């Protein structure tokens, strides 16, 4: 197991079977703050994932969870509900088995799938199902960080100030910022809290060429848990957020 310096924080909305780039950022952190008290976005990845069979990224297709928004477009992520939990569970099981059952790493994918299906049984909240799918992947890869939901924490209202306040709650010294956040983030509140902002940009070649498009299940089907954990560790090490063991 790689040794990780304490104090690295990532803040990200709950994503269903998250993309490889998203999973890599969370894997590099000590704390994942689940951003569940912002507006639900139907075009985002909170209720859907793009999956593809091993070796065939060109056959990628959407796996979506029909979701009801009680307050319309103003609905917060944590308030979104699965329109038909039983049907979503059945469709998810069918789609994942059909897509990956021939992978040489199917047993590990099946372990993740079982956890995901349990999530449908335990809750009808889309965010909790999405969070549990990410947690299942992180657990399989040996992540030992902490998960906290933003709705349980206090913070200022302005976007960058709130993110800095959330990170500070964890005692973080480093905040991992993905490509989306880099477009709007004000570094001032982080500097005031003595938190270093580190851009987290994954490679764009090989395994990573589809990292912003496909669910991490695709990479798992290609590499298995050990290979994928190693790839994520190396990426985090290049960002200075993770110390790899020396030989």
From TrEMBL:
Alphabetical list of InterPro entries matching this protein: WbqC
One Pfam family, short name: WbqC
Superkingdom of source: Bacteria
Protein's name according to its UniProt entry: WbqC family protein
Provenance organism: Streptomyces polygonati
């Amino acid at each position: 197991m790689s040794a990780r310096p304490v104090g690295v924080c990532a803040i990200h909305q709950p994503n269903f079977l998250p993309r490889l780039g998203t999973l890599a950022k969370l894997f590099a952190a000590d704390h994942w703050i689940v951003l569940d008290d912002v507006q639900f976005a139907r075009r985002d990845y909170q209720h859907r994932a793009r999956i593809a069979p091993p070796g065939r990224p060109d056959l990628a297709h959407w796996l979506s969870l029909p979701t009801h928004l009680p307050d319309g477009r103003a609905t917060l992520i944590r308030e979104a509900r699965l329109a038909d939990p039983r049907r979503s569970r059945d469709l998810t099981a069918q789609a994942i088995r059909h897509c990956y059952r021939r992978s040489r790493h199917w047993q590990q994918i099946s372990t993740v799938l079982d956890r995901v299906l349990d999530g449908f049984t335990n809750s009808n909240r889309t965010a909790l199902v999405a969070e549990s799918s990410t947690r299942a992947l992180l657990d399989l890869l040996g992540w030992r960080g902490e998960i906290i939901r933003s709705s349980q924490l206090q913070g200022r209202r302005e976007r960058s100030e709130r993110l800095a306040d959330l990170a500070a709650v964890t005692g973080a010294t480093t905040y991992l910022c993905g490509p989306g956040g880099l477009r709007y983030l004000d570094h001032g509140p982080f500097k005031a809290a003595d938190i270093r902002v580190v851009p987290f940009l994954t490679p764009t070649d090989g395994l990573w060429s589809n990292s912003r498009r496909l669910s991490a299940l695709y990479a798992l089907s290609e590499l298995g848990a050990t290979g994928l954990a190693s790839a994520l560790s190396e990426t985090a090490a290049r960002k200075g957020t993770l110390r790899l063991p020396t030989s």
